[in-house]
Amino acid sequence: MPHRPKSLLIRVRLQRTRDELYAVHVGAGILPSLPGLVRALLPAHRIFLVTDSNVRRFHGQNLLALLRRAGLPAHLLAVPPGEKSKRRQVKARLEDRMLDLGGGRDSLVLALGGGMVCDLAGFVAATFHRGVPFIPIPTTLLAMVDAAIGGKTAVDHPRGKNLIGAFHQPCAVLTDVEFLATLNEREFRSGLSEVVKTAVVGDPDLFGRLERSPSTILSRHPEAMMKLVSACCRVKVRVVEADARDSGLRAVLNFGHTLGHALEHHLRYRLSHGEAVAIGMALEARAAEAARILKAGEAGRIVAVLEKLGLPTLLPKGVSPARVLETARRDKKAERGEVRYALPRKIGEMTRRRDRHTFPLPDRLVLSVLSDRS
Ligand code: GLY
Question: How far is the CA of 2 from the centre of ligand 1 (A)?
Fold first, then answer.
């Protein structure tokens, strides 16, 4: 029997206008549908397939060949792997190259890679000729469930993550869960951290599945991955549809990220984003429970799931709690020097009070949670 790729569509409807409506295609083995998708969406004069040099080796060349065989005018542009490529200088080099290759307003940017590539290439697309369309093709779990959806694009600055960027919605997202089979263990587990976050934010059933069957998730079976990724996409799409420009509700997606981003930045990215967010979620959940914001017992469930999935939950040895809190105070999520946290009320539901979705916590409480190494 011929192999029939399975896929499903999740529509993102930001406003009732055509250009703000796009679909997230989630499937197993759906990559060959890319040329058809591109043709159906827009007539692009130049297609720039942006990736990193690791992904280029494993998938970039194949995808380039696929596009060219279909008669599409594609060019492959690779940047060095890792967060260090997410900066203005690398963006400028990509733009120079695209101009050299004749890129104009009718260009299309494809972002093939993890969160770094999606954020960087998306930001290139946001400003190239004042904005050209782009399609993220996420290859990591983290990018599939978070970075590729919702139009946040950015580069980092020495003073913090994602400080220079733009909102630029994709014209489609192509998510092929078959990429997940090739991820190394650390990267896969890092992505699971955002899956846990998504479940805490808005899908208690998904959280229950993570609690009951971590081994099914860790097996990376394509059917299990499709269920997992599509459940996360639905939560993210729901939040983005309600607040595309991050002026309220979207802040709930930052559960675990206030302390997580601070830790990531403080340790100069020696922890992966997912590892830092896992620690951030464990600490913020404990602090929220101590402050009687989170229902009693829920922090323990969150920590237990993270541990079952092989993620860290304690501040690494040698890291000063006071310095982490100080770093959080300088982050863009802080308001006038006040550190603010997106906190669950219970698993599957975030706290909201008088239209606010983030809250301050007493420093002494956060410091005590950060100092607890047991
Ligand atoms: N990654 C959080 C957001 O998209 O808002």
Answer: 38
Looking at residue 179, its pLDDT comes to 96
What's the one-letter identity of residue 128?
F
Q: What is the pLDDT of residues 146-178, one digit of tens each?
A: 999 999 999 998 877 888 999 999 999 999 999
Distance between CA 235 and CA 144 in Å, rounded?
A: 12
Dihedral sign, Cα of residue 105, residue 136, residue 176, residue 68: positive
Measured distance CA(50)–CA(56) in Å, rounded = 9
Residue 19 burial (10 A CB sphere; 0-12, 13-18, 19+): exposed
Structure tokens at 236: 């993210």
- CA–CA distance, 143 with 120 (Å, rounded to integer): 12
Q: Which of 12, 146, 197, 252 for mutating ligand 1's site (highest number of atoms within 8 Å of CB)?
A: 146
Angle at alpha carbon of residue 197, lines to 160 and 355, rounded to 5° = 80
Q: Which atom of ligand 1 is nearest to the CA of 152?
A: 4
Per-residue confidence (pLDDT) for residue 1, from 0 to 100: 46
Supply the residue whose CA is at minimum distance from atom 3 of ligand 1: 253
Tell me the whole-structure pTM to 2 decimals.
0.92
Positions of the chain with pLDDT under 50: 1, 18
How far, in Å, from the CA of 152 to the mean position of ligand 1? 7
| Atom of ligand 1 lying closest to residue 253 CA | 2
